[in-house]
Amino acid sequence: MNLVKTVNMLKERVTFPIATRELYYRFASVRYFDENESPYHYDPEYNKGKISRWMEASSEVDDFFIVQRLGDMLPLPKLSKEDLPNYLATIQKVVDYQSTLIQQLNSDHQPKGDSSNAL
């Protein structure tokens, strides 16, 4: 039964009508690069920092990347600028809740003392 719950949660996440803010930022980090980056090589560590800076300035960045620029790469329903932050926050709450449940299900089925397969 727990496996069915896990599979259903993961299927639901794949069919969200809008991606998470994190996914939009990851796509943006590939598509947009600055003068310190090579367009031919993706540096995961550099891009983690870049994404962190974008997340700190999320109100301006969301409008640029998510609304204006990434609609051709990822599905994006027609949302007002005011509704987008609420929608992204709701999606993130669902993802966090499901992640917690999946981790709990996983830890419930691990032998005691064995943390080698932890998420």
3D architecture notes:
- The protein has 119 residues and is mostly helical.
- It has one domain.
- It has 5 helices and no strands.
- It has helices at 2-14, 21-31, 44-56, 58-69, 83-108.
- α1 (2-14) runs antiparallel to α5 and α2 (21-31) packs across α3 (44-56).
Q: What is the gist of this entry?
A:
By secondary structure, the chain is mainly alpha-helical. It has five helices and no strands.
Indicate the proportion of strand residues.
Answer: under 5%
Largest sheet, strands/sense/barrel: none
Order of helices and strands: HHHHH
How much helicity do the residues have? 55-70%
Computed Rg:
17 Å
Tell me, briefly, the overall form. Answer: globular
Individual helix count = 5
End-to-end span in angstroms?
19 Å
Structural class: mainly alpha
The poorly predicted ranges are none
**Would you report the number of β strands?**
0
Whole-number total of structural domains: 1
Overall pLDDT confidence = 77
